[in-house]
Amino acid sequence: MARASLVGGAVVTSSSGHAADRGDAPVTLALTGASGAPYGVRLLQVLNDAGVPVRLIISKTGWRLLREEEGIDDEAALRERTGDWSRVSIYDDADRGATPASGSTASRGMVVCPCSMGTLASIAQGTTRSLIERSADVALKERRPLILVPRETPYSILHLENMLRLSRAGAVVLPASPGFYHRPQSIEELVDFVVGRITAHLGLDLPLGPRWRSGERE
Ligand SMILES: Cc1cc2nc3c(=O)[nH]c(=O)nc-3n(C[C@H](O)[C@H](O)[C@H](O)COP(=O)(O)O)c2cc1C
Q1: H or E element: which one contains 70?
Q2: Of all atoms in ligand 1, which is nearest to the CA of residue 130?
Q3: Which residues line ligand 1 (CB under 6 A)?
Q4: Ligand 1 centroid vs 35 CA: distance in angstroms?
Q5: pLDDT tens digits for range 138-160
Q6: Fewer beta carbons within 10 Å, N or C terminal of the chain?
Q7: Cα angle vertex 192, ends 191, 195, to 5°?
Q8: Burial track 43-63 (b if 16+ CB lie within 10 A, e otherwise)
């Protein structure tokens, strides 16, 4: 049965009775080396604004993309761009023994945004060679939400097979593919379209992105 609670002003719902699946438990957020760093940065900002606790992990190439696409060189620059960090804990992707690696730690789920095809393939195979891969593996085994936001084009058969495998295992494959039916006027609106879909899948009721109603635009 769905349960609702308040986190920092946002209504959050939880559809499972898993003891660790509480509405106020942290979200694990991973940024990897696919194009689309602005999605990850905006998602972190939105979670911070909503007062949602975040466990943050950024891969080595994720940092490179933050530099190249957002001009964010280090943690200090990321903090400056993403609001209140009082509920953010950041972990080293090389530390496979850190908190997000444990299934017994409370979590409301994990988002990999953006998700490289490399990380996606590793999660699909359960290799757990980094903290990001291990945390995603834990989300699957604990039956918690795992939302993967890939960005690649075109997709190879391997990419498609890995995504199918992950979808069958319970992950939500949510490509960074913004819609245009709301006639976006800015890159920020395109980014918010995708981020709004992610937060909706986390059960967060945040006023982000358009909601389609036939014949009307919000
Ligand atoms: C500038 C740049 C852009 C990239 N863009 C993508 C991309 O859009 N999608 C993707 O799957 N991989 C992309 N890659 C490749 C990944 O970064 C690479 O496979 C890397 O090993 C992924 O490692 P990670 O998943 O640990 O971050 C890009 C790499 C660089 C340097």
Answers
A1: helix 60-70
A2: 26
A3: 32-35, 59, 61-62, 64, 68, 116-119, 151-152
A4: 7
A5: 999 999 999 999 999 999 999 99
A6: N
A7: 90
A8: bbbbbbebebbbbbbbbebbb
